[in-house]
Write a structure and sequence with these properties.
single chain; 281 residues; alpha/beta; 10 helices; 14% strand; globular
């Protein structure tokens, strides 16, 4: 399958849990030869407008997108990407605001649990690192690292913040179907994100195909080859749009190299997303 090497449809900015501002991310994408990117911040579209303004300088396209987190006891953690969402949709923004409010209270609860575990993490440090973005576990992990409670970010997750770790606090629960419905209600195309990170991806994707999901992220750094092959076949059988992206958040290596732009969607992905959402060919 040929891919669109000038596109990357999955990345995060400081509007959620990324390290780079929308403007910085656009500049980096341009330097890596990308012409179309999708800003897929968690539960917020705040990074899209500044990214689009910055992209105009380079003649780039920024697809308005979002990543929603669904979680149920049966499914575990399931993320759904939304492409070409209408960011002006009032009901959609109201739902995102409620998700962000939940993230704030969840973050406070996690910090309280850390205090009970003998780690008196300063909440103000977490808030400063988030810098107005919806509070997420990576912000807490970075605060723990900055305060010297862990020696690396992964240690914070492994010992304290992962789903089965002692400081874990469950999110407000939204089913994957509800995430699909919310995205589609805002005019977007709903795509199952990184199935390689979904524990029961086959039955979940089968269920979502029946529910009317639009696509699946076939190409992702955390998709093992066997997962890529399987979901590609399921997508073909279910007439789904197949997408791909780097899921870029921050520098991946100590030498500063990044994987932004190194995972790309199929060549027809953007045209199919546009057609699905009525954006034209």
């Amino acid at each position: 399958m040929t891919t669109d090497t000038h596109a990357d449809l999955h990345m995060h900015t400081t509007a959620s849990d990324g390290n780079y501002t929308p403007e910085e991310l656009v500049k980096m994408a341009h330097e890596r030869g990308l012409t179309t990117i999708a800003i897929t911040d968690h539960d917020t579209t705040d990074g899209i407008a500044p990214a689009q303004a910055a992209a105009a300088e380079f003649g780039m396209t920024v697809i308005p997108a979002v990543e929603l987190s669904a979680e149920t006891p049966e499914d575990g953690d399931v993320h759904v990407l939304g492409y070409y969402v209408n960011v002006a949709d009032a009901n959609f923004q109201e739902a995102l605001a409620a998700f962000r409010e939940n993230r704030y209270h969840r973050g406070r609860s996690i910090v309280r649990k850390l205090h009970e575990l003998g780690i008196p993490l300063d909440w103000d440090k977490v808030a400063a690192i988030a810098d107005g973005a919806p509070i997420a576990r990576p912000h807490i992990a970075r605060a723990m690292l900055a305060e010297g409670y862990v020696s690396e970010l992964q240690e914070a997750f492994d010992k304290y913040l992962a789903d089965n770790a002692p400081a874990h606090v469950a999110r407000h629960r939204m089913s994957p179907e509800e995430a699909v419905d919310l995205i589609q209600s805002a005019g977007g195309a709903a795509v199952l994100a990184h199935p390689g990170l979904v524990e029961r991806y086959e039955p979940i994707l089968t269920r979502l195909i029946a529910h009317g999901i639009d696509g699946v992220e076939v190409f992702h750094p955390k998709n093992p080859q066997e997962v890529t092959d399987k979901v590609q076949q399921m997508a073909a059988d279910g007439n789904l749009i197949t997408t791909g992206g780097s899921d870029f958040h921050r520098p991946e290596h100590s030498d500063g190299s990044v994987r932004l732009g190194t995972v790309n969607p199929p060549a027809d992905a953007i045209a199919r997303l546009r057609q699905k959402t009525g954006m034209g060919s």
